[in-house]
Design goal:
heterodimer; A: 206 residues; alpha+beta; three-stranded antiparallel beta sheet; 10 strands; B: 301 residues; mainly alpha; 0% strand
Chain lengths: 206, 301
């Protein structure tokens, strides 16, 4: 059986430039409003008065690039009534547009907001890890496009062996719900899932 | 709220009405058969019973408007092993088929009376499983506002309340045409008093569940608190209207219905009270379902 594939995101290297997001939209020809890969800008901290100065106190900001996590406990495939949402042998979660009834139930169940409804097609769509490229031995468009080499993909156990098994940066949800196939390399200010000290500052872009 | 969710608001409310009405009408049928005889009981209760498959077919048609690709709907059932929505679809269709068969057999007098009533009770059992499936469909870990015991409790209470008041309205309507039949008016009074009492009891449960639900949500994290905030602000007026209508319908009017059914000469008010109570509660449950879909927040991103 093929190994479960997943993404690696190095928050230390990522600058939040969104080249991955744009490359994904371009490669998959995604319409307005649909973003299979999104870059969340998570920020927190405050400025405090000190004498005549105003100085930053614990101010932090970091980007979190996230797409479908191709979860090992993929709730989208479990709830899908038609079986349109399915997992391949290599763990990539895909939608079969010929089976999808467009009920959007998967989008209610996925805590990562990965399945997104395409109004013009009437079906759900989501990141398929550029399966056409992967099957040809190439890398997903987002990974190829990253100018800082902050993104990678491969077998999850190999990614974990190389980078650790951290998969819970805020603002992402508790990974225990779906066991996402992803590894993040946190930087020194990265907060854990469930953190309430910060906010997603670029909601209008997501 | 996504506009397509209007289809689900109508589907769930009508399906709950249909299941509740069938359950209540079969109890009334059983009682009426004992006090009036089988033929009079059938003549009195059949028209409201025939409305059950009609309501359910309307519910199913409404549900199709939720889908992005209706042409694929026939494939909506293969994931029965893990998908509560698949189970909900199967139960909805099975319930509809059973109620259509019951109505047809009853109309054409096919099979024995016991067989026909047995078929209807089988539909009630499937209807109860439908309500369980419908509730479980929404009890997703990513949806704290839905993933609470309040979802199945509210769905069952709504089904019973709508079923009781819908049946009462239907039975008052058909009793008018049976006015000359001895005993029908007396049986109607007994049924209306029981319906009114049950409606007040169910109203009490609905009013009790709401504060408990909000208290529970307040402990379930940020997404759940956002749901409470929406209920209190943007949808506060809707929540107030929903509570006001159900209080008037299942409380005040049900109380008057009980009073009128307890005194001689109260029959003239039955229609006005029963129809208005049902209409108000039906609108209230629709508004409650709007709140259900409008105030849920998914956890995560």
């Amino acid at each position: 059986m093929a190994k479960q594939l997943g993404f690696f995101v190095d928050i230390n290297k990522c600058t939040g430039c969104k080249a991955c997001q744009v490359a994904c939209k371009d490669k998959n020809d995604l319409p307005t409003g649909i973003r299979w890969r999104r870059v969340f800008q998570y920020e927190g901290g405050q400025w405090v008065n000190q004498g005549s100065s105003v100085i930053p106190s614990d101010v932090y900001a970091y980007p979190v690039s996230a797409a479908c996590m191709h979860c090992q406990n993929a709730v989208c495939t479990q709830v899908c009534p038609s079986g349109a949402m399915y997992k391949r042998e290599d763990g990539i979660v895909q939608v079969d547009a010929n089976k999808c009834i467009g009920c959007r139930y998967c989008s209610w169940a996925c805590p990562y907001g990965a399945p997104q409804f395409n109004e013009s097609l009437g079906v759900m769509t989501k990141c398929n890890m550029c399966v056409d490229l992967v099957d040809k031995g190439q890398r997903p468009a987002c990974v190829e496009a990253c100018p800082y080499r902050a993104l990678d993909f491969g077998a999850v156990d190999e990614l974990q062996a190389a980078h650790g098994n951290f998969n819970a940066p805020a603002p992402l949800p508790d990974p225990n719900i779906t066991n996402p196939s992803v590894v993040y390399n946190p930087n020194k200010v990265t907060k854990f899932t469930g953190d309430t000290s910060g906010h997603i500052m670029n909601l209008e872009e997501l | 709220m996504n506009t397509r969710e209007w289809a689900l608001i109508i589907f769930t409310t009508l399906a709950q009405l249909a299941v509740g009405m069938l359950f209540v009408l079969l109890i009334v049928r059983s009682y009426a058969s004992r006090v009036l005889g089988a033929d009079k009981a059938a003549a009195w209760t059949n028209t409201p019973l025939y409305s059950v498959p009609v309501i359910m077919i309307a519910a199913l048609i409404a549900s199709l408007f939720h889908l992005g690709k209706v042409m694929n709907v026939i494939g909506a059932v293969p994931n029965l092993a893990t998908s509560w929505m698949s189970r909900e679809v199967v139960c909805s269709v099975t319930f509809t088929v059973l109620t259509v068969l019951f109505a047809f057999f009853e109309w054409r007098k096919i099979g024995s009376a016991a067989l026909r009533i047995g078929l209807a009770w089988l539909a009630v059992v499937v209807g109860a499983v439908l309500l369980v499936s419908m509730s479980a469909t929404y009890m997703l870990p990513a949806q704290p506002a839905w993933n609470t015991p309040a979802t199945p409790i509210n769905f069952f209470v709504a089904s019973l309340l709508l079923g009781i008041l819908g049946s009462a309205a239907g039975l008052v309507a058909t009793a008018k045409s049976q006015a000359e039949e001895a005993g029908v008016q007396d049986a109607l009074k007994v049924v209306l008093k029981s319906c009114a009492l049950a409606a007040v009891l169910l109203l009490g449960i609905e009013l009790l569940i709401l504060p408990m639900y909000i208290a529970y949500l307040s402990t379930q994290g940020l997404a759940a608190i956002r749901s409470i905030y929406l209920m209190a602000t943007e949808y506060g007026a809707l929540l107030f209207l929903r509570l006001l209508l159900v209080f008037i319908g299942a409380g005040v009017l049900a109380f008057y219905l009980y009073q009128k059914a307890s005194v001689a000469g109260g029959e003239k008010s039955f229609g006005t009270l029963a129809y208005t109570a049902f209409a108000l509660v039906f609108i209230s449950e629709l508004l409650g379902r709007v709140l259900f879909y409008a105030t849920h927040y998914r956890i995560g991103v």
